[in-house]
Write a structure and sequence with these properties.
The protein is mainly alpha-helical. Helix content is about 45%, strand content about 10%. It is built from eight helices and three strands. It has helices at about 20-45, 55-60, 65-80, 95-105, 110-120, 175, 180-185, 195-205; strands at about 125-135, 140-145, 160-165. A three-stranded antiparallel beta sheet has the order 2-1-3. A hairpin with a 5-residue loop joins strand 1 (about 125-135) and strand 2. Helix 1 (about 20-45) packs antiparallel against helix 3 (about 65-80). The relative contact order is 0.16. The protein binds manganese (III) ion. Manganese (III) ion binds near residues 27, 77 and 171. Manganese (III) ion (MN3) binds near residues 27, 31, 166, 170 and 171.
C-alpha cells in the first residue's frame, strides 16, 4: 500500500489572513504531493514497502537521501496540516493536559512561545521548528534542517513531535516575502491545541492525568 497524499481538514482559504489560499494550495498539491510521490518511488520494490512511516524514520540513517528527504517531507506535512485550524490559536485551555505540561517544562506559555519562536527564527535556511515529548515524558523545543524531524535517528534530540512549523520559504514567501518573524507570529493564531493535546496524550498513553 503506497503512501497517500491526505486531504486537508479545511479549505485552502480557511487559514487566511494568516496563511493565504494560494500558498496553501501550492504547498499541498505541489510540494506535499511531490514528497509523497517521490517517497513511494524511492521505496518501491525495497524492504521498506509496507512499513509505517514512523518505522522508516526511526532508522533513517540506514536509508538513502531520497527516503530521508521525501519520507520526512511526507510525515512533516501530514502533521503540519493537522496541527493548524481556522478556529485555533490563543493558548491551550486549562482543560487540556498540555497547558499544565507547558507550565511545568517551560515555566509559562510565554516562555514556551519565546523558545519556539527562537527555534523557528534561528533555523538557518530551510527546516522546521518543533515541540516534542521526550522519553521521560517532558516537553522540549528543537529545530531540524531540511525535511528532517525528531523521530529520525539522525536528529540532534529525538522525541515525539506534537507541534511543528514549516519554515521553508515555500511555506510563507508569497505573503510574507522575507518576513519570517511575521509568519511565525501569525502561526500562533492558528495552532490547533486540541490536536496538539491529542498528540501529547498519544505520546504516552500510560500517563496519569495532571
Ligand atoms: Mn513545506
Amino acid at each position: 500500500m503506497a503512501f497517500q497524499l491526505p486531504e486537508l481538514p479545511y479549505a485552502y482559504d480557511a487559514l487566511e489572513p494568516y496563511i493565504d489560499a494560494r500558498t496553501m494550495e501550492i504547498h499541498h498539491t505541489k510540494h506535499h504531493a511531490a514528497y509523497t510521490n517521490n517517497l513511494n518511488a524511492a521505496i518501491a520494490g525495497t524492504e521498506l514497502e509496507g512499513k509505517s512511516i514512523e518505522d522508516i524514520l526511526a532508522n533513517i540513517s540506514q536509508h538513502s537521501p531520497a527516503v530521508r528527504n521525501n519520507g520526512g517531507g511526507y510525515y512533516n506535512h501530514n502533521l503540519f496540516w493537522e496541527i493548524m485550524s481556522p478556529v485555533g490559536g490563543g493558548e491551550p485551555s486549562a482543560r487540556m493536559n498540555i497547558d499544565k505540561a507547558i507550565e511545568r517544562d517551560f515555566g509559562s506559555f510565554d516562555e514556551f512561545k519565546k523558545q519556539f519562536t527562537q527555534a523557528a527564527m534561528t533555523r538557518f535556511g530551510s527546516g522546521w521548528a518543533w515541540l516534542c515529548v521526550d522519553a521521560d515524558d517532558h516537553l522540549f523545543v528543537t529545530s531540524t534542517p531540511n525535511q528532517d524531524n525528531p523521530l529520525m535517528d539522525v536528529a540532534d534530540k529525538q522525541g515525539a513531535p506534537i507541534l511543528g512549523l514549516d519554515v521553508w520559504e515555500h511555506a510563507y514567501y508569497l505573503n510574507y516575502q522575507n518576513r519570517r518573524p511575521d509568519y511565525v507570529e501569525a502561526f500562533f493564531s492558528i495552532i490547533n491545541w486540541h490536536e496538539v493535546t491529542k498528540r501529547f496524550n498519544d505520546a504516552n498513553p500510560g500517563r496519569s492525568n495532571f
